[in-house]
Design brief:
The complex is a heterodimer. The longest helix of chain A is centred in the C-terminal third of the chain and has 16 residues. The N and C termini of chain A lie far apart (49 Å). By secondary structure, chain A is α/β, with parallel strands linked by helices. In chain A, the strands form 2 sheets. A 3-stranded parallel beta sheet of chain A has the order 1-2-3. In chain A, strands 4-5 form a two-stranded antiparallel ribbon. Chain B has a 5-stranded mixed beta sheet with strand order 1-2-7-6-3. Helix content of chain B is 18%, strand content 28%. In chain B, α3 links the parallel β8 and β9. The mean pLDDT of chain B is 88. Chain B contains 4 helices and 9 strands; from the N terminus they run αββαββββββαβα. Classes of the chains: A alpha/beta, B alpha/beta. Chains A and B meet through loops of A and loops of B. The complex binds iron/sulfur cluster. Iron/sulfur cluster binds next to α3 and α5 of chain A.
Chain lengths: 205, 222
């Protein structure tokens, strides 16, 4: 498929007005995919309560096609890392991710999943799940409100629909992430350099 | 409810010669505690539980405390005879001493039957390295099970007589005791967006050796 559109959006709208719908199979698949993102039924800490709340009647994640929380990673498209990832829990989270079929997406929900959050300097908490899993959407907050989770989900859907997700890097490297071992002092490895590199900071001396 | 001093006297009547002392708490709560000898600890605990007057049938809380080696300065007054034959002089001398550290475990005991408590008892290890064994109170109060495991996990106090002494929070192959004051955590400070104080010092190790020359200073700043 070439990058340049065969017809412009304006032309397509014009055709649609005359009752002709023009699309490609890829577009149709991406649209369908974006409207049925099934999350894994899996929560880790206080943020999970907000995620549960988002799935109930008041916030109603079903409006966006994501109400089908799957109890099995084999049937899930989306891993919402909702809460603190302790070092003891990290291998299990990554194992669940590895068991999900491609294409799959990851949302890091809350300060803990992004960076370790309030427990960042603790001895027992992983400083961000993105050290092992490629994260698509980061939702800041402690905890983020259910609306924020819905916003993150809509962003993800938009990116799936327009073909920005899964990212080319993710497509090139499907499947497995490194599962760390329990070491004598820390997880081994403590991070996966293929997935995560610390951002380079330049500071004034 | 008996005072700690009364409990100590009661214990001494039953265990003559045991090294039991009252550790006073100078804070406003004034919760004084009893320091028990490790050797007779188990027998004393059983007595505390079974004694009809005390009937401390419930252990609500077990805590570990780490007391590292501490340098203390003592001021001693000395009388020195004046070589010139005058009256003796009083000289103050400061002596620095190393107070060896130890690990401590603190139990909060209550009585459900008599509705009183807490009675706080402490036990101390010989040092922080090789004499870290204390008697387990798990056979006396079942609720000590997980809490003693946690103290073992985080402080490294070995409870003799515990039925199932494994780590409870950290994994089995873990070698450190994270709540000890001299614990060195793994160096994963490579990404600290807003570091300060201790974290800043640890994060600086990961800063690039020389700031890239290409990055110009922001406008208006030196
Ligand atoms: S980010 Fe805050 S609310 Fe969410 S899991 Fe961490 S501590 Fe709990």
């Amino acid at each position: 498929m070439s990058d340049a559109p065969v017809i412009t959006d304006a032309e397509r709208d014009e055709l649609r007005r005359h009752g002709i719908m023009l699309t490609s199979l890829g577009e149709l698949a991406a649209w369908g995919r974006s409207k049925s993102v099934w999350p894994l039924q899996f929560g880790l800490a206080c943020c999970a309560i907000e995620m549960i709340s988002a799935s109930m009647a008041r916030f109603d994640i079903a409006r966006f096609g994501s109400e089908v929380f799957r109890p099995s990673p084999r049937q899930a498209d989306l891993l919402i890392v909702s809460g603190t990832v302790t070092k003891k829990m990290a291998p299990q989270v990554i194992r669940l991710w590895n068991q999900m079929p491609d294409p799959k997406y990851c949302i890091a929900m809350g300060a803990c999943a992004i960076s370790g959050g309030p427990f960042k300097q603790g001895y027992n908490v992983l400083k961000g799940i993105d050290r092992f899993i490629p994260v698509d959407i980061y939702i800041p907050g402690c905890p983020p409100r259910p609306e924020a989770l819905l916003h993150g989900l809509i962003q993800l859907q938009e990116q799936i629909r327009t073909g920005k997700r899964p990212t080319p890097a993710k497509v090139a490297r499907p499947g497995e992430c490194t599962i760390p071992e329990f070491g004598e002092h820390d997880l081994e490895p403590a991070k996966d350099p293929a997935v995560w590199q610390p951002p380079v900071i330049t500071r004034q001396p | 409810m008996l005072t700690p001093e009364q409990i100590r006297d009661r214990l001494l009547a039953r265990f003559p010669g045991a090294a039991i002392s009252v550790v006073t708490n100078p804070g406003s709560s004034g919760q004084h505690s009893l320091l028990l000898p490790a050797g007779e600890g188990r027998a004393i605990a059983e007595f505390l539980r079974d004694d009809p007057e005390l009937a401390l049938d419930f252990c609500s809380n077990v805590s570990g405390v780490d007391w590292p080696d501490k340098e203390i300065t003592e001021t001693v007054k000395k009388t020195v005879p004046d070589p010139a034959g005058g009256p003796d002089k009083v000289v103050e001398e400061k002596i620095k001493k190393l107070q060896p550290g130890y690990l401590e475990v603190v139990y909060h005991l209550y009585s459900m039957a008599k509705k009183h408590g807490p009675v706080i008892v402490r036990l101390r290890t010989g040092n922080r390295s090789d004499q870290v064994t204390l008697p387990s109170f798990m056979p006396v109060w079942r609720s000590c099970d997980f809490q003693e495991r946690e103290v073992y996990d985080l402080y490294g106090i070995v409870f003799e007589g515990h039925a199932d002494l494994r780590r409870i929070l950290m994994w089995d192959g873990f070698k450190d005791f994270p709540m000890r004051k001299d614990y060195e955590e793994p160096d994963d400070y490579e990404w600290e967006p807003t570091p300060h104080d201790d974290v800043l010092a640890k994060a600086k190790v990961h800063y690039p050796a020389t700031a890239p020359a290409a990055a110009p200073a922001p406008e208006g700043k030196a």
